[in-house]
UniProtKB/TrEMBL annotation, chain A:
Record region (Disordered): 1-88, 111-145, 188-225, 546-571
InterPro entries: Kinase-like_dom_sf, Prot_kinase_dom, Ser/Thr_kinase_AS
Biased composition (Low complexity): 1-18, 24-39, 67-76
Protein's name in the database: non-specific serine/threonine protein kinase
Enzyme Commission no: 2.7.11.1
GO terms, biological process: mitotic DNA damage checkpoint signaling
GO molecular function, one term: protein serine/threonine kinase activity
Domain Protein kinase, first and last residues per copy: 167-543
UniProt KW keywords: ATP-binding, Kinase, Nucleotide-binding, Serine/threonine-protein kinase, Transferase
Ranges of compositional bias, category Acidic residues: 136-145, 191-207
UniProtKB/TrEMBL annotation, chain B:
Region (Disordered): 1-86, 190-221, 377-453, 544-596
One Pfam family cited in the UniProt record for this chain: DBF4_BRCT
Keyword Ion transport annotated: no
Domain DBF4-type: 591-640
PANTHER family from the UniProt entry: ACTIVATOR OF S-PHASE KINASE-RELATED, PROTEIN CHIFFON
Lineage: Eukaryota, Fungi, Dikarya, Ascomycota, Pezizomycotina
Name by which UniProt lists this protein: DBF4-type domain-containing protein
GO CC annotations on file: Dbf4-dependent protein kinase complex
UniProt record, GO biological process: positive regulation of nuclear cell cycle DNA replication; regulation of cell cycle phase transition
Length: 571, 640
């Protein structure tokens, strides 16, 4: 139903011939089966929150799409998930999503070629693990391709010499501040490569050329690389905007290269440049969009997710590198494999870059003394209510400067406070925000339109006292009289109970959740010095001695049984 | 000691008991005289000065001094027992501190202050404040005529002094000459002029080091003053001696520090003295600000700047600022005052349906709540109307009525929920136990109500399930100014929105279409609660939002249009819109210019596409030398 013919036509024009026919055929198939399915889904939403009991119904709906599904292996639902606390119904949303995906010809082709073996022609369960297929960041799951995207891809192919010989761009799968990421198919390379891009050639064979250890890891973890000579390999082409300085690009590629040995980090296959345009080639990693599952992750799922994430962080941090932009989008998680990879080191930096001593690096006593004797504190103590009455009007003092690169809502307090000696702990905070998101079942948890908003949001949780303390650590005074910022704030338990909208009988955390919250406390610790390190995090009992109550176990087992059943059927 | 002729000028004494009257005469008619007084004071025996300091500090001194203090010559305890009765009277806080160094006392004072003892100890506050102000005025008037010569003052201290005295209009004389009016020294000041005749004989109490050989001193950092070389007599060629002979004032460095501190900072710091007279204090600040501005004090020290002029907080605010006030505030934002905190614009927990950001008001949920509320209102109204007039009402009439009673506005969920009878607001108040010290000021924090599952089983647009993902921002490289940076951030916000929105809107649109048959009502998107128009990024978002929406919409329509053969039930709904599509499409094709910052050209641009083909940019791209480093890595990558 939503085939943008023009867009498609355009793309076809660009795409190599052989894939074209397939594409057309596929999209037709999908069209027919899709329509009824999609229109049914919303009704679903109305009628019932999804729930295991509804499964038959959903399945029926899904069967409609079965035939073509078989071809695509498409399904985007995490199995065994019962949206416990939401009215929403992730399943339905996912169903819609999934249906769209179905018609995505590239995906289909991809699936066919790359994941054939995992997709039996006949699968009963739609919401299979396998289904966590090549779902993309939002753009890719559109069944049509945005005209502007098509235009951009065409431009890239036209302007970047040689690229179209090596890769066939499929769709945009991500757009960031400094780059756009396209999914592309690596074309089989005849031996002749023309022109100045000779050096690019290894790109196609880069995988084989990689150190064996890396290759293995890549193939295993990255799940994309089940390639045979014949089958096209999917890659992610990261087009780094030409407005980025060579230095920044160098930084990113260098760090990625340095970190290439971790299975938890998306390896850099190769990269090349044409004039000012640099394109990095990464393996395409199968993953689900976070927004599809954050509402119904079991605590057990969170364990897997975070074990993988913290392993990645550990590796990054061990190398003395700050990722600086940890967020769900940058951690591609494949639920079926319980593995994820860190991507996007565009903001990463080595710890110590632009480092200036901040008060927080001093011993506690010294810090305290300095703070109490500081000018502003002394002045403040002269104020009747111990609170400032105003701020300077025309202020010509310099601004405090510190790297605050990152994504709103995920910035650690010390980043907001422009600490000049930031450490890898900022990534831990961001990971904590992800966990908070999952536990509270709200994404994004922080809106944080800007840093001030972010600070207020943070203060709404932690309260004034703790915010004052953390500000003081970094040599600053935190003052506010905003009513909704309490003196003591809330415990994270309270926040989570409140935010996840329990039913009356679930006013307390369950055992597994409680454990997750205690872990969360170690991550969302305002004092970076006390915050867990990645290594410490991995040693937390959340991973080492998991607990769960009966209900949680039942859920987990149901999920596992389901997965297993599917696994046996599928493989 | 207590000799009348040696009495300190009251004007320079913050808390002299009779100061309110004295300064008037002093500063007004007798300027030369008061100048003399100053020098007199300076030449008083150190104990007395110390006593003065001791007294002054607790009452009005602040941080800078604390720092200076620890390098000052330590005050030996044996000097303490000698303060005159008069001084004792004057320095109400003098007792009990004996034996401590100035620095220690400073710390004590700070502690006292933090403990809130201070205010209670200051008895005649207004009197003192009056004195201080008069004194300050006096000195500010005098300062421009001062020429300082620094003797043995460390470079660091000197430069700090220079900034400060410059801010008050005084000058430094680099070389000792007749032009000098004040010598600032880190050495002990020779005995007072009164005893000029016995200058060579230290007064009986001063049986301790007085001065040292300047040649020794010159290289000494000021911190070494503690190890003063003892000299019993005055070298006649000593600058201090000569200066004194030439009628110059000789100030110990700490004296200057104290004076400056009192003029500059304490003008603000002493505000605590004047609970009842804050307006005068403020006036004072502005006055000082005026002075400083008149002095064209562009690069004034960090100290006085905050007081140039304060924008006072009127509503709820957040203010995060540097403890040394060396930087401008890390954050400062004020919000309009509101009667109910839930009406506040600042981010706060809101009622939002599950899955959505808890800091953003959930319009879908709000709508639901309002519907509930309307229903309740309607019911109430119906009852009332039935009572008032038994005539039957038409449905439309009632709707109008209820709308009137319930105008569409940004009602808070809390408020709205207040009317919903079956609402179970979940107020978690963790702070009730904690009210002790803040009493009324204690904010009661609680969560806004969240929906219970059954209560809000409403249809939710698919788009709401796909929150937009924020894009990274905040890169700060040394070559970026903050203005550029904010520009950059906002531009990314713009693109981020575009990227995120199109699909959401697409979803929403589809859903809208689908739902038309089912419910007919739809809430569109969510508006960040803390939307501030003066927030650049926010404003930009607002401005830009429509465009992608439009684009996505027409695209979706196009899609929908393309599948007629499938006979979608709602295809009709789109027919009209499709008619207008062609015109819209053209707009879509013309892309939104994407503004941003080019790190390579170090330029802001309004349109990415335009910029990257500009000559400057192309030149950068073509210059091989810009890329050598990167190319080295690339070839390494390609080889591996």
């Amino acid at each position: 139903m939503k085939l943008a013919k023009t867009a498609k036509g355009l793309l076809k024009g660009l795409a190599p011939k052989q894939s074209e026919q397939k594409t057309t055929k596929n999209s037709k198939t999908s069209k027919t089966s899709q329509t009824p399915n999609t229109s049914r889904t919303p009704r679903h939403v109305v009628l019932s929150p999804p729930d295991p009991r509804n499964r038959p119904l959903r399945e029926a709906a899904r069967r409609a799409a079965e035939a073509q599904r078989a071809a695509t292996g498409k399904a985007a639902v995490i199995p065994g998930k019962r949206p416990r606390h939401d009215m929403g119904h992730p399943a339905t949303a996912i169903a819609i999503h999934e249906d769209e995906d179905v018609s995505l010809r590239e995906t289909r082709r991809l699936d066919k070629s790359a994941t054939k073996e995992m997709v039996p022609p006949h699968s009963e369960e739609e919401d299979s693990v396998e289904g966590s297929c090549y779902s993309e960041e939002s753009e890719d799951s559109e069944d049509d391709i945005d005209e502007s995207v098509v235009e951009d891809m065409r431009k890239l192919e036209e302007n970047f010499k040689g690229i179209s010989q090596r890769y066939r761009l499929i769709n945009r799968i991500g757009e960031g501040t400094f780059s756009t990421v396209y999914k592309a198919e690596q074309l089989p390379q005849p031996d002749e490569i023309d022109g100045p891009d000779e050096n690019v050639e290894p790109a196609d064979d880069s995988n084989p050329d990689m150190p064996p250890s890396k290759r293995r890891k890549t193939n295993a973890a990255v799940g994309m690389a089940r390639r045979s000579r014949r089958k096209p390999q999917m890659v992610a082409l990261k087009k780094i905007y030409v407005t980025s300085s060579p230095h920044r690009i160098l930084n990113e590629l260098e760090l990625l290269h340095e970190l290439r040995d971790s299975p938890y980090i998306c390896p850099l296959l190769t990269a090349f440049r044409h004039l000012d345009q640099v394109v990095a080639v990464l393996p395409y990693f199968r993953h689900l969009d976070f927004r599809l599952y954050y509402r119904d992750f079991l605590v057990n799922d969170m364990r897997h997710y975070f074990r993988s994430l913290f392993n990645g962080l550990w590796h990054v941090h061990k190398a003395g590198i700050l990722h600086r932009d940890i967020k769900p989008t940058n951690f591609l998680y494949d639920h079926s494999r319980r593995e994820g990879v860190l991507v996007d080191f565009g903001l990463a930096e080595r710890q110590g870059t632009d480092w200036q001593p901040c008060l927080c690096t001093e011993a506690k006593e010294r810090r305290r003394e300095k703070f109490l004797n500081s000018f502003a504190v002394q002045v403040l103590q002269t104020q009747p209510d111990l609170i400032s009455t105003g701020y300077p009007k025309s202020d010509s003092r310099p601004s405090r400067r510190a790297n605050r690169a990152g994504t709103r809502g995920f910035r650690a307090p010390e980043v907001l406070l422009k600490c000049t000696s930031q450490t890898t702990k900022i990534d831990i905070w961001s990971a904590g925000v992800i966990l908070l998101t999952l536990l509270a079942r709200r994404f994004p948890f922080f809106n944080s339109a800007d840093d001030v908003d972010a600070m207020i949001e943070m203060a709404s949780i932690f309260g004034r006292k703790k915010m004052q303390a953390v500000a003081a650590m970094h040599g600053q005074l935190f003052e506010t009289n905003i009513e909704t910022i309490g003196e003591r704030g809330f415990t994270l338990d309270k926040i989570i109970i409140w935010a996840s909208c329990r039913e009356k009988d679930h006013e307390s955390l369950r055992a597994g959740e409680a454990q997750a919250v205690s872990f969360l406390q170690g991550l969302l610790e305002l004092d970076a010095n006390k915050r867990l390190s990645a290594k410490e995090a991995l040693q937390h009992e959340f991973f080492t001695a998991p607990v769960e109550d009966e209900e949680e176990r039942a859920e987990r087992e149901a999920q596992e049984a389901l997965e297993e059943a599917e696994g046996t059927r599928r493989y | 000691m207590a000799h009348p002729s040696r009495r300190m000028p009251l004007a320079s004494l913050a808390n002299a008991p009779n100061s309110p009257h004295r300064p008037l005469t002093n500063s007004g008619s007798k300027r030369p005289r008061s100048l003399a007084n100053v020098s007199q004071q300076e030449n008083e025996p150190p104990q007395k000065r110390l006593a003065v300091e001791k007294n002054e500090h607790p009452s009005k001194r602040v941080a800078v001094e604390t720092k200076m203090r620890d390098t000052h010559p330590p005050v030996t305890p044996q000097r303490q027992p000698q303060p005159s009765v008069a001084e004792d009277r004057v320095f109400e806080r003098g007792h009990g501190d004996s034996g401590s160094t100035a620095f220690q006392r400073k710390l004590v004072a700070a502690r006292d202050k933090s403990a809130g003892l201070r205010v209670t100890k200051n008895v005649d506050l207004s009197t003192k404040e009056e004195t201080i102000r008069t004194w300050q005025k006096h000195y500010r008037r005098l300062f421009p005529s001062f020429n300082f010569y620094f003797d043995g003052v460390s470079e660091e201290a000197r430069s700090r002094f220079l900034r400060q005295i410059a801010s008050l209009g005084a000058k430094e004389e680099k070389f000792f000459s007749k032009a000098v009016t004040h010598i600032v020294t880190t050495r002990h000041v020779p005995t007072d002029t009164k005893n000029a005749n016995d200058a060579d004989h230290p007064s009986p109490v001063e049986d301790h080091p007085q001065t040292i050989n300047p040649s020794l001193l010159e290289k000494n950092p000021r911190g070494h003053m503690a190890t003063n070389v003892r000299r019993d007599g005055m070298n006649q060629m000593d600058i201090l001696v000569r200066g004194k002979e030439m009628g110059m004032k000789i100030w110990a460095a700490e004296k200057l520090q104290r004076v400056l501190g009192s003029i500059l900072e304490d003008s603000a710091g002493h505000g605590h003295h004047a609970r009842g007279s804050t307006h005068t204090t403020r006036h004072q600040h502005e006055d000082l600000g005026q002075v400083l501005r008149n002095e064209k004090l562009g690069t004034a020290s960090e100290r006085e700047q905050p007081f140039l002029s304060l924008v006072s907080f009127k509503g709820p605010f957040i203010y995060v600022h540097d403890m040394e006030e060396k930087y401008r505030p890390t954050m400062v934002r004020e919000y309009p005052k509101v009667a109910r905190r839930s009406d506040g614009e600042w981010p706060q927990f809101r009622s939002a349906s599950v899955g959505k950001c808890p800091f953003v008001e959930d319009l879908a949920m709000k709508k639901e709540i309002e519907q509930e509320r309307k229903r309740a209102n309607l019911a109430a109204m119906q009852q009332q109307q039935q009572r008032e007039q038994q005539a039957p009402r038409t449905r439309s009439h009632m709707t109008v009525q209820s709308t009137k009673a319930d105008p569409p506005r940004r009602a808070s969920p809390r408020k709205a929920l207040g009317v919903v009878p079956n609402n179970t607001a979940m107020d978690v108040d963790v702070e009730k136990k904690d009210n002790r010290d803040h009493g009324a000021a204690e904010r009661q924090s609680s969560f806004p109500p969240m929906p219970e599952r059954p209560a809000f089983e409403f249809v939710r647009p698919a788009q709401l399930h796909m929150p937009r993902e924020p894009a990274a921002s905040g890169i700060q490289r040394s070559n970026l100014t903050s203005a550029i940076q904010s520009q950059m951030i906002s531009s990314t916000a713009g693109t981020g929105v575009k990227a995120g929105t199109s699909k959401e809107v697409h979803h929403q649109l589809k859903r809208q279409v689908l739902e038309r048959t089912h419910t007919g009502s739809l809430s569109v998107g969510s508006i960040p609660s803390s939307h501030r128009m003066n927030d650049l990024a926010g404003a930009l978002k607002t401005v830009r939002a429509p465009a992608p929406q439009r684009a996505a919409k027409s695209k979706a329509q196009e899609k929908l249009g393309g599948i007629q053969e499938e006979g979608e039930s709602h295809a009709d709904d789109l027919a009209a819109e499709r008619a207008m599509q062609s015109t819209r499409r053209k707009k879509v094709v013309k892309r939104d210019p994407k503004p941003g910052y080019c790190e390579n050209c170090r330029d802001k641009y309004d349109d990415f596409e335009e910029h990257i083909v500009s000559r400057k940019h192309r030149k950068f791209a073509m210059t091989q030398s810009n890329w050598t480093e990167l190319d080295a890595l690339l070839s390494q990558l390609q080889a591996s």
